[in-house]
Write a structure and sequence with these properties.
There is one protein chain. This protein is mainly alpha-helical and about 280 residues long. It has one domain. Helices cover about 70% and strands about 0% of the residues. The chain is built from 10 helices and no strands. α1 crosses α5 (about 105-140), α6 (about 150-185) runs antiparallel to α7 and α6 (about 150-185) packs antiparallel against α9 (about 230-235). It starts with a helix and ends in a 7-residue tail after the last helix. The model has no long low-confidence stretch (mean pLDDT about 90).
Length: about 280
């Protein structure tokens, strides 16, 4: 009973942030339209690439198109920047009040990061799947749309992997938050995060297209768990024990980054100095 009561503040902040973010329907529609536009461009780029004679490409055109639509559907899971509300607290000095809350600061911020990413993804992913996975096949464009999972087992493993994506994304967002508080500036962390995450997650170029010598190392680093691992599970490039190993790697990185972020935030908050007047 006491443990359930201890979780109440974190569940409350998660539910509140989720409900608040879901209210921005215009932002969700605008995000969907933007992601749809870039999805079409990326599909056309892949089509031109394969039409040019990519006989030995590491994945089929169908899988590359599916990879693209999945990337656009779940784009908002990518931790490109610090939590905007924490950024504002650092700018105006209100971050000092976080030390006065009778809750664990890391867990409080982590719950906020979870809700922020999930709420932004849900409406956009639903619209993208409806368009690329349902509407396009209905009008005869199924070849260019989102293909279904390769099997029922792949669908189940992909669902488990998405949980790992959410946990890992929030853990990386927390590290960016800590850097923000430590440096008292959002410029450095936010400027670097987007480029690093896009490249090493496989969002810009699937990791399968990198040189063979680099591929094992790229798939072992934490950002691969945001895009390349779950999408490869979806269309069967990772199956069976390989898929389970990929999911285990996602959760291992999430736990490791949570431990690191929690320790680092504690050290930063203990020596926090805020100036103003």
């Amino acid at each position: 009973m006491s443990q359930a009561l201890a979780l109440c503040p974190y569940l409350a902040v998660f539910a509140g942030r989720l409900q608040l973010t879901l209210q921005y329907r215009a932002a969700a529609l605008a995000g969907f339209a933007t992601q749809l536009w870039f999805g079409v461009i990326r599909v056309l780029i892949f089509a031109a690439f394969y039409a040019g004679g990519a006989a030995h490409a590491p994945m089929s055109l169908t899988n590359a198109i599916t990879y693209t639509w999945l990337g656009q559907a779940f784009l908002a899971f990518l931790p490109w920047s610090a939590d905007p509300e924490i950024t504002e607290m650092v700018r105006n000095g209100a971050v000092a009040y976080e030390r006065l809350r009778p809750v664990d600061t890391y867990a409080w911020w982590y719950a906020r990061a979870l809700a922020w990413s999930v709420a932004r993804v849900l409406p956009r992913a639903a619209l993208m799947v409806a368009f690329a996975g349902v509407a396009m096949p209905l009008v005869g464009l199924g070849r260019w749309g989102l293909a279904p999972p390769s099997s029922f087992a792949a669908a189940g493993l992909f669902a488990a992997s998405l949980v790992g994506v959410v946990a890992l994304s929030a853990a990386i967002t927390q590290l960016i938050n800590v850097i923000l508080v430590a440096t008292m500036s959002d410029r450095g962390a936010n400027a670097l995060a987007g480029s690093v995450v896009n490249l090493f997650s496989g969002m810009v170029v699937p990791l399968a297209f990198f040189p063979d010598a680099l591929r094992p190392w790229l798939r072992a680093q934490p950002f691969a768990g945001l895009v390349d691992i779950p999408f490869s599970i979806y269309f069967g490039a990772l199956a069976g024990w390989s898929a389970i190993g990929g999911i285990a790697l996602q959760f291992a990185w999430a736990m490791g980054l949570i431990v690191l972020g929690r320790w680092w935030l504690g050290a930063v908050m203990r020596r926090l100095q805020v100036q103003g007047g």
